[in-house]
UniProtKB/TrEMBL annotation:
Region feature (Disordered): 91-117
Keywords for this protein: Signal
The organism of origin for this protein: Candidatus Alectryocaccomicrobium excrementavium
InterPro entries, A to Z: Cell_Wall_Dynamics_Protein (IPR052354), SH3-like_bac-type (IPR003646)
Acidic residues biased stretches: 91-114
Gene3D superfamilies in the cross-refs: SH3 Domains
The keyword Metal-binding is annotated on this UniProt entry: no
Residues of the signal peptide: 1-26
Domain SH3b: 118-180
Name of protein: SH3 domain-containing protein
PANTHER family recorded: CELL WALL-BINDING PROTEIN YWSB, FAMILY PROTEIN, PUTATIVE-RELATED
Amino acid sequence: MPSAKWLTGVTVSALLLTSMAPGALAETTGYLTSKTKIYQQPRTNSVSMTVPKGTEVIIVEYGEGSYDGWVWIENPSNGVNAYVKERYVAEDEDNKDEPPDQEDGQEPEEDEEVSKETFSAYVAVDSLPVYASASTSSGKVTTIDFGREVTVVETRGDWAKIQYGSYKGFARIEGMSKSTPGDPVTAYATQDAYIYKEASTSAGRYATLSAGKSITVYATNGDWCRVSNNGVIGYMRKSQLSTSQQEAEESGPQDVNQPGYVSVEMMKVYASASTSADVLATLSYGTQVQVLQVSADGTWARFEYNGHTGFALCSNLSNSPIFSGGGGSTGVPGSGSVLMVDWFTSDIQSIFSPGTYAVITDVDSGISWNVIRRNSTNHADVEPLTLADTEAMRQACADSNGNWTYVRHAVWVTIDGQRYAASIYTEPHGDGQIDDNGYSGHLCVHFVNSRTHGSDKVDPDHQKMILKAYNAG
C-alpha cells in the first residue's frame, strides 16, 4: 500500500526499475460497519473525513506487514482512493451492522494519536535526528546512523519517543522501520524533479533535484521513493529517477551554450519546460537569446535573455540570425512593409526618439493622424500635432459619444516611410506640451514587450493589438 507510516525494508534497487503491483487481492465490495474516518494516507494524522455507517466501498488491498490493520479503499462512484482501519470494514453486507472489533486496551479511533506500545525499530535513513520534544524546532539530542536498532516507547502521530543507549528523545516515525531496512540505493534524477513532503504531487514541495544529480533512496512504494535530502526526509517520483548515472545523463538535458534566434512572430517564455507553466514574457521575431540546454528529446530549450533564464519550445528557435531590418532594427516584415519590433532590444527607441514625428494609422478604420514623440522610457509617449489630428484620432478611436477610452487599438506607426506594428489607447493623461491641439495630455504607444509606467509590466492586451497590427500589414 502506498504512503505507509513505517517503511517495509524492501530492497529498493529492483523496485526502482519496475512498478509495484497492488496486493494479491482482486477488487471486492465492502461496507463500513460504523461511522468512521477515512484518511488520505494510511495514518491517523493525515487529512481525513467522516463517512456514515453502511457506506459501500471497493476494497483494493489489505495491508500487510508494516501496513497491517489498514485497508486501501476506493469510492465506487468517483474512483477516489482513501484508507480506513480494517476493523471498520466488512465484505459481507449482512455483517455491515456489526460493531467493529476493538483490540485489547485500545481506545476509540479518535484517541489513537498516542500509543504506549513498546517495540524495536530500525533507523531507515542516514543520520536520523533525535529531538528533545516532538518538534523539529526543539533542541537536537543526537543523530543515529542508518540501520541502528532503537526502542520505541511511545508514538504520537508522526513522532516516536525512543531510547537509544543513554539517549532519550523524539524522532520522526517516517525515518524508521519495524523491520531491518534494505540497503539504500543511490539514484540519479533523469530531469529536474521536485522533492515533496509527502508521497503526493499535491503535497508541499521543499526542494528540487537537478537533472543528473544523485540522491539516496531508502524505500519505494508504487511510483514513489522515500529519499533523504540534506538530512530531511522527502518523496520523489520513481519515474524521474534511475539507478544508472549514464542513463540519467543521457535522458537529461544536453548542454549547448550557443546563440538562438526567435523564429516565430511572438515566442512565449515559460518558467519551466511545460506549456502549462507560467508565461514570463514574450519575445519577438529575430530576438537573440543564449541557449544553455536542450532537452534530450529536442522539445525544450533553456536559455538566458537579459540576465534571466526561461524555457521555450525548440521549434520556435533558429540556430542562425533570421532578419535584420533597415537601420539595424530587428523585426518581422509584415507583407513586405510592417515590422514588429521589440521596444528594448531593437533600434526602435533611437528611430522613434524624443522629438521625432510619426504618422499613426488606426488599423480598423484606416484613419491616420500626426504625432510627435515625447520623453518616456517604458514605451513611447506622444501627442497629436494639431486640432485636426486630434479630431482624426477621435473619429477613429473614440466611443459612440466621442469620449476617449482605455480600449486598446491596433495601429501602424510610420516613421521615415517604414511602418511598425503598435498599440494605443486614447485616454489623455499626464502633461502635454502643445496647447492648441485640443488634447489635454499625451497618449501611450506600445511596441513588443514595452511596459506600462504604472505597473512596470508588459500589458497583454497591448501585445494582442500589436500582433493584430502586424498580421493586418
